[in-house]
Amino acid sequence: MKTVPYIVQKEFRQIFRHRVMLPLIFLMPVIQLLVLAFAADYEVDNVKLHIVDLDHSQAARQLVGQFEASEHFILTGTSASGKVAMNQVQQGDADLYLELPPDFQRQLLREGNSQLQMAVDAINGVKAGLSSAYANAIIRDFNAAFRQNYGGGIAQPVALQIETANWFNPEQNYQTFMVPGILVILVTLVGMFLAGMNIVKEKEIGTIEQINVSPIRKHEFIIGKLLPFWIIALVELAIGLVVGKLVFHIPFVGSLWLIFGFAGLYLLVVLGFGLLISTVTETQQQAMFIAWFFLIIFILMSGLFTPIESMPPWAQDITRVNPVAYFVDVMRLVLLKGSDVWDIRQHIVVMGGYALAVNGLAVLNYRKVG
Questions:
Q1: Separation CA 362–CA 196 (nearest Å)
Q2: CB neighbours (10 Å) of residue 31?
Q3: Whole-model pTM?
Q4: DSSP letter string over 221-266?
Q5: Coil, strand or helix: which one is 53?
Q6: What distance in Å separates the CA atoms of residue 117 and residue 99, rounded to the nearest whole number?
Q7: Phi–psi pair at 332, nearest 5 degrees
Q8: Of 125, 188, 343, 357, which has the fewest Cβ atoms less than 10 A away?
Q9: Tens of pLDDT, residues 282-291
Q10: Strands (DSSP E) along 80-194, which ranges?
């Protein structure tokens, strides 16, 4: 093991000597964090709304006014024909149209109910679902206010009062929820890509044969090659946490030592994947494509953008072997909820077994190459 520090020193010198590598390692992840955290928004704003008002009553104007006051909708036009409104939706000039019947206010006052017609452009299913939910919420608020003022309404009076309290993210800020997961993605990218392509580079330039016949043992070579990127990835995580705290005000409820401890274990898995990829590829381009193939699956099925509970059963089974999903969950549990070691014990056990399996397979496969 005496040769490991020298290999690590050589690797760090090569990294810091490369002018292009330093910005890619330290600057690009910060830029990605800032861009993704602001862009990855679960809310839907600026929904283009078209109103078909066939009543022109006070109640109709009040309902339209509530839509105009909402931050989620932009009133793009009004008309007296459902065909005109549908044409606006088909042309993409409106995302949703709401039609108020001619006797809208009279039905509310006399019969206590009325029917509205709403059509939503559902090409984007997520946007359509949220737009409908926002519109329904506004209609419910209007209904409650109209009933209180005029003694009529669409809904029946509610005898119970419900008070809600949001724990761990009281303001329901999407950045508080997204930033910890985005940090996991950035750390994964640095670890898997750089580790995999670094060893493949030795093959491309022809130095891998010299290393294999040298007195350096293979486990020393592997440790010396991967340890610098293990350290760099932890530094990336530290920088990302600082940016998350200063820019996005992410709460650090739990222990940062626990975060870095689990991150160190997780990086053994990621670096093992990089090493395994390097043993089955001959060029950096091949390593990059294979790493990207697995990363796309890991990221999209990690629960970062889509809740795992909403996936079909077969997809939920796949996430049980997805290391990114475990780290995303741990980041949110520890940072936002304040979970301790006992709370994430299952994650630690799974990740430890994953690290042994992946690195063991990578080392065995690497010996075949040597």
A1: 11
A2: 10
A3: 0.80
A4: HHHHHHHHHHHHHHHHHHHHHHHHHHHS-----S-HHHHHHHHHHH
A5: strand
A6: 5
A7: -70, -40
A8: 125
A9: 888 888 899 8
A10: 96-100, 117-120
